[in-house]
Amino acid sequence: MSGLENHLPTEPPTDGAEDTPGLTLHLSRGTRPTRPTVPVLRVVAGPDLLRFLPVVAGKSYVLGREGEADLAFPDPSVSRRHALLRMEPSGRFHIEDLGSTNGTAVNGQSMRSAFVRPGDLIQIGAVTLRLDLLDLAELAHLHRVHEKLVSAESDPLTGLRTRAWLDNDLEIVARRTQEAGRPFALVFVDIDDFKSINDQLGHRVGDEVLASVGRLILLGLRSTDVAVRYGGDEIVLVLPGACEAEAQELAERLRTTLEGHDWSRLGSELRIRASLGVAVLRPGEGVSQCLDRADLALYAAKESGKNSVRSAS
Length: 313
Prior knowledge:
alpha+beta; 6-stranded antiparallel β-sheet; about 25% strand; disordered N terminus; 5-stranded mixed β-sheet; single chain
């Protein structure tokens, strides 16, 4: 993440991003941005999903497998010095293959040297990246996601909090939220037919699916939300301040994100779908009871055909 600190805002975003259940990183191609943007090269598939590199005009960046690369990947399909990305002073972006073993492609076309534009997909070996234009709030959000992924309190596979967080912190967060007069919601997430993924494609692929699911979920949450790996492929989302409608909206957005993600790198026919159950803490109710109701709502989603969101109400 070379140079990241030079692009982060010194004050929290003031555009309302923190009050919205989930911040979607978007790209407007061919239109004039309404806010200042930073070019960012980020991974969009595979175990390094969401790793990113801000790009500065006039600088060159080595993409490769060696530790000295500006954006390094452990993937064996990537050469030690695989490709070179440069943003020219004019604002144009240029990618050059450095004689790699498995080649470089732009939007599916193999190349040795080419100009790329925001929105283009760049393939180096088996790693897929995209050149995006992110505003400062989006870049700050992406940075916070990475901080959570590398936190010592996070599950090493998914980057989510461990179940111990529920035992130690859940009731405290719920009580403080209620004392502030704000709603408090929980969402149970379960990947549909996850066992069949392990059985048919192996546990390595299953682990990569869980790692990617964790990153996609973290990207879709607010900074105040917490995602916990409850066990296996079950995840609990803690949403302080979210009412039932907001929690349902976030759950549905996450469901469609998981379903719409490109999973072909892990299996040509692989599709990931999830069922989600939503519950909002009632006055006088214990947080464990709310969690049980979210679990029952998840069960109802499974019974209704899976790949859906159900509310405990």
